[in-house]
Structures are given as C-alpha cells and as structure tokens.
Design brief:
With 414 residues, the protein is an alpha+beta fold. The chain has helices spanning 3-12, 31-41, 43-63, 100-171, 177-212, 235-245, 247-267, 307-372, 378-412, and strands spanning 22-26, 69-82, 85-99, 222-226, 273-285, 288-300. A hairpin with a 2-residue loop joins strand 2 and strand 3 (85-99).
Length: 414
Amino acid sequence: MKRAGATCLLALLCTGATQVKSVPAFSGLTLGQAQTRTVELDLGVQEARAAATQRAAALHLAQIMAVPHLAGDYTLTPQSLGNNATVEQHLTAVGAGISLNEILAAPAMVRSAARDLLAAQRDGDAAVLTARESAVRFYYGALSAIAIERFRREDLNAAMRDLRAAELRAESGEAPRLDVIRARVTVSQARADLALAGAQRADAVGALAAATGTSTTALTAVVEQSRAPTTLYAIPAAVTRALATRPEIAALRAAIEARIASLSVARQSGLPTITAAGGYAAGVDTGVPVHGPQASVHVDVPLASPDGSETAVALAQLNVAQAQLVEAQRTVALQVSAAIRDATGAAEAASAAQTAARAAAQALRAVEIGYRNGASSSLDVADARRTYVQASIAALVAEYALVQSTELIKVLVP
C-alpha cells in the first residue's frame, strides 16, 4: 500500500468510491474464496441453516393443520332379540372430520410459522455475514503477520551486517570493542523478535487455514491483487443503509410479526373445542340391514380456560422481540459508525506511518554513513535502528489495518 493510496482513501471516504488499485493477497487463496470457505465450515451458519429447515417443516405442518381428517370405523356388538336369542350388530362407517378451532386458528398459525421461517432464514444470512467478517480478520491478520516476519528477517540481516562492520572497525582500531558488544546485543534482540514474529505468523496462518479448511502450504506466497473501487458512505448514510439491509434486523422484524400472529392464536385458545365429522355407515342392526349418512358434532368446554396465561406468554414474547429489535438497531448503528471512523483513522494512520517510516529509514542511513566515517557512535546506530524498526512495524500494521477496515465495511454495509 503506497502513501498515495492511503491519502486518496482518506479524501474520498465521505464522497464516494475509493481508488485503492491493489491489495496484498495470497496467491493460493483469494479473500472471496476465504469468505466462501469460512461460511461453508462455520458452525453458526450450519446451525442457522438447520434451524431454517426446522422452521420450514413447522410451516408445512401449520399449512396442513386445517385439512379434513379421513376416518373409518368398524363396530361389532351383540344384541338381544328376546327369548334368550341374540344377534350381531356390525356397522362400517367412513367419513371425514375437522376441528372448527383449527380452521379458525389456521391463518394465524400459518402467518406465525411463515414469519418464523423468514426470521430463521435472515438469522442464517446474519450468520453468513459474521462468518465473512471473521474471514476478513483472519485473512489480513495472516497477511500482516507474514509481512512483519519478513521485515523482522530483513532487520536481522541488517543487524548482522552492522555487527560485521563493527568487528572490522574494531579490528582496525577505528572503533572500540564496545561497539561490537552493542552490535551483538542488537543481533540477539533481532533474533528474538524474528522468533516471536515467526510464532505469531504460524498462529495467524494456522487460524486462517483452520477457518477455511485450507492447507498452510497454500498460504505462503503473497501477491498484489487488483481491486475494484470500494463505495463508502458518510456515517448517516451508512447507518441508514445497514438498518435497511442487515439480515439480523430483518430477522427480528419477522420475529415480531410471528409473535403478533402467535398472540392472535393464544387469544383463541379459550374458545370451546368443536369437532365435526360426517360420513356414511352401513351394516346390520337387530338383524336388519341398515345404511345411510352419519354425522356427529363434539363440543369440549374447558372449565379452566388457559387463554389468559397463553396470551400473557405470547405478549411477553412479543415485548422481548421488540426490545431485541431496538437493541439490534442500536448495535448495528454503533458498529457501522465505528467501522467508518476506523476506516478514516486507518487512512490517516497509514499515511502518517508511511511518512514516519521513510523519515526513520533516511535517518538510519545517515547515521550508518556517519558511523562509517567516524561521525556517529554505535549507540547512535542502535538508537536509529530501533526507531526505524518501530516506525516500519507501525507502517505495516497501519497498511493492513487500512485494507481490512475497508473490506469490513463491505461486509457490515451490504
């Protein structure tokens, strides 16, 4: 990432599309591939999709709830004819029955189940966004760790060159042995920093490989990859767009509609249960063949009606869903606002860090030249190198933070 790219991004954050032309990427795994694979392997996504499947089955059950039930009966009983004689009564009946309560409750039950399904589907979409966000962090975390390790190795090589130069100057009598000792301390510190950077690189690459199901051997080569301009928004516009498009908001709105439908069902729970059945019966009664239509109506009036309790439960669930929606809207607004501010800050930090790193590199070269000419001490060289290393690491971190922040905005504001 060059300074021009960072400055351009800062200037265009509130006006439209950024012009960052290229970003670092793994040659064996693009960011898009990392996001796709992370989504496929993410447990939260799998659980959300399973929940949506369950909700789809529940919707099907609600849709067939009011379908009439076919019924068949066969009875065989003895009957008396007097004079101690008996005959058999046998009847066969076929017909259909239906509960009037199910007919009345069916529309609300279907609405509730449909909204529950929609909420589950949007929850799945939200889980996908979360997995994509994790993939972005894993991806650029690994790239940043690789870049830092590479820089630490270069720093160790430079420190070893300084040590050889100090040894030559000490042997020729141009510098004291203390310079050699200081150079060796710098080399030891550089080795320790490289070992730590190597461990952090292995951890970051391993985390990305585990999240994407990719071999770590595919996460070694880094290339510059072209990138289309990224459309960014001012904070109010970004928040408005996110609230309109984020799936977790849609999920909670659907859940509220489902709870409203459940409340309607609960209010009907105190009605008497009425079941009607009708059909055709044929058989023998007291030795005489009989046949004809048959009908029955069954009414069940509960002495202790549950409608008040069920209504209270449904109303409480509705209130909870509404509170969750308000909290989710607040969370999304804060999250998106922070992401925009982070991108702005990352652009400024990247520009400043690059400037500081260049200045530190120039200062180090000047001190090294001065040391070779006897105008600087080894202490000056060590101090200049330490400043250069700190500034360069800060520039690398800022570079990857800038790219990561802009990619996260793509996820957070669909």
